[in-house]
Amino acid sequence: MSTPTIYVGLGVVLLMLFLLVLVLLLTRERADSRRAPEAAAALLSKGAFPIHCRHFPQVRQALSAADQQYLEQRASASIRRKARRERRKVAQQFVAGIKEDFLRLDRVGRTVASLSPGVSRKLEFERLRLMLRFWMLYGLVRMQLAMGVSVVTELARLTELVGGLAAQTERAMAALEEASARRLQSGIRA
Amino acid sequence: MPLSLSTYLFWGAGTALELLLCALALRNGLFRRLRFFTLYVLLVAIYEVSWFGAIHALGYKSKGAFYFFWLAQAILLSARAAAIAELCQHILRPYRGVWALAKSILLGIALILLGYATIATLGRTSWITAFILTAGRGLELAAAVILLTLLFISAYYRIRLEPVVRLVALGLCFFSTVQMLNNSFLVGWLVQYFRLMRFFPLWDGIRTLSFNVAVVIWCLAVWRPLSAMAPEATLLPQQIYDELAPQVNYRLRMLNQRLLEMLKV
């Protein structure tokens, strides 16, 4: 490939990235006009993280092997098909919920980093890499679910991991609320 | 060579827009927020008016006009580089941790791209226009990549951008991206394969049009008086980051590990 072609290709990529950033900035600005500690505190306190992982016992019940066996023995073929579709739908929705929890956790990490006097380059790049990897894996898991593979046991382990951070985030939330209050007080004095 | 009426109209409209931008920037106090960008805008307006005088006094195709044009482009490009550096500092500096990280990334990108632009330019010493266009292409590429990285960093860390700053950054980024493509087409294909400088007016037309689009974006940015500067973000104690960040990463890492295991089932 010649150098001009590379440059033109690069230019087109840049133009596309520019449009992407434009969309990103415009949509994010509408979705959340607060970015300072107030937004971070709101983010952390919203429904007390994590949200979706808490519903795992119900989801597990809905997807349990006992239920499946019961249906195999008692239900007609059409009901069994319908039930399979429903179970798959529940699992897909739950994985989507896990994604939300993941994103919330990632956002907590980013917000805390943005409001810290110093950040570790290693940790920041690692989080970025993990986020990219998550998206790739999440897409593949969704595909696997769509093909009907059972993932109930793995879902249980996932929820434990995401849920385990509640204590740390609560501490961060308290610090953020304190920072917001300090800022508000200094604003009133000014 | 007399210029056509459409060229005059195009030019007149562009100059009027630039003068309007200058007036708005000065009236609404942009210089208090972005000094180098305001200086850049003023230089552009001065250049447009003096370029008009120069080609009438020296002639459109004269050597004097040629040197005037490219010297002015070099000055404007330097002013734009200063404005971009100022923008990076203005957006990220209040966030000390992110700024320290971003500074090294942005400087690294700038050094690599400028180094590459220098090497590419030195390889084209045979013809001055190709030399200048190659240098311009490299510099525009560096500007566009730096601005996009800056916007990505601010979006990634959810750093709030004031509307005026956001629009200034988007305008600069748009112009640099289009210019980079424009220079690539001219220096890369048209000149290299056809050796025809008759495409220069087309190149100049695209440059002027994209710049006018950027000027309209900037006019929107300074259309209203600028709001008071937002108070600086209150930073958290360092301890919070030191404790929470490794934990977050650990959970994310394990979560990915589990997803990977799920795929293996």
Secondary-structure content class of chain A? mainly alpha
Shape of chain A: flat
The computed structural class of chain B is mainly alpha
Low-confidence stretches of chain B: none
Span between termini of chain A: 61 Å
Instruction: Measure the end-to-end span of chain B.
Output: 76 Å
Query: What is the rounded Rg of chain A?
Result: 22 Å
Task: Give your account of this protein's structure.
The complex is a heterodimer of chains A (190) and B (265). Chain A is mainly alpha-helical. Chain A is flat. Chain A folds into two domains: 1-31; 34-189. Chain A has helices spanning 3-31, 37-45, 56-62, 65-74, 77-114, 121-146, 152-163, 166-189. In chain A, helix 2 runs antiparallel to helix 8 (166-189) and helix 5 (77-114) packs antiparallel against helix 6. Chain B has 265 residues and is mainly alpha-helical. Chain B has helices at residues 5-27, 30-33, 35-58, 63-92, 96-122, 128-156, 163-194, 200-221, 238-264. The longest helix of chain B has 32 residues, at 163-194. Chains A and B meet through helix 1, helix 5, helix 6, helix 7 and helix 8 of A and helix 5, helix 6, helix 7 and helix 9 of B.
Write a brief caption for the model.
The complex is a heterodimer of chains A (about 190) and B (about 260). Chain A has about 190 residues and is mostly helical. Chain A contains eight helices and no strands.
Topology (SSEs and partners):
The complex is a heterodimer of chains A (190) and B (265).
Chain A: H1 3-31, H2 37-45, H3 56-62, H4 65-74, H5 77-114, H6 121-146, H7 152-163, H8 166-189
Helix pairs in contact in A: 2-5, 2-8, 5-6, 5-7
Chain B: H1 5-27, H2 30-33, H3 35-58, H4 63-92, H5 96-122, H6 128-156, H7 163-194, H8 200-221, H9 238-264
Helix pairs in contact in B: 1-3, 1-8, 3-4, 4-6, 5-6, 6-7, 7-8
Which properties best describe this structure?
heterodimer; A: 190 residues; mainly alpha; 2 domains; 8 helices; 82% helix; flat; B: 265 residues; 9 helices; globular
